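Lab notes, practical 5.
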Amino acid sequence: MNLELIEAVHDRMSGQAYYATIDRTKNNEFAEYSLLPAELVHRDMFWAPLKYNGARKNENAVGMNILFADLDHMDTDYLHKMWPHLLWETSPGSTQAIWFLAHSLPLAVWSDLNQRMTYFMNADKGGWHASKLLRVPGSVNYKREDPYQGRVLSFQPNAEEYEPDMLRQYLPEARRAETDYGDPPAQLTHEGWKAHLRHIWDDIDLSTRANLLQANQKDRSQTLVFVCNRMLAQGISTEDIFHALEGVNWNKFADRPAYLWGLINGGVK
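Output from the prediction step:
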């Protein structure tokens, strides 16, 4: 692990740092820490690039003087237009990046700018929120069958910092899935969710059923996209898909129902 890189980012801000692990030997057990735990075999390591005044929640983020993106597939054409201060590989072809800003921003302004950067880089469109966790640079990725040793690709701490006003002029406005399709349906109780699944169960194919019944998923993003696309292809309504997903343990957008609603109505991809 490259702890000095984390320190270089966190030293730019005050507040509480957060780290997390996923233990692949314990049914993908998730644990969160205020200090970076020891690296253990079969335990994926994560860190929050921002700090917080209290719990790791969007509204508690402080010191918003960096931007970040989770690039599922590195596109050097986009990166060379706006090279990050820190770039590291988490699996073959997948990278994460951080850009230093010249000064801190209020949460609302920062959120808009981080989403713009995420969309501009064609990164994970669900990964721009302030509570985001990234993989620890240089740590081992145990998500796949064959573990992958992460590596730092570039670190330029003394490069010129990006001016937020310049970025706002350069980065296109992001199309916000949360506001495109109105408010999401009212969420169901747990019993209501189970009753809803029984109601639509016969309309769902076997592969999708199997995913919905899984307690955990190795790749929550990939599974969510797969399930949404399959259910949309089967003609299941957007409201029924939303309710089917809201109660599963691996729904990464459980705390962002408006975003999930927007993704489903947008046809996912």
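Observations recorded by the TA: The chain has a mean pLDDT of 87. Residues 22 and 78 are 31 Å apart (CA to CA).
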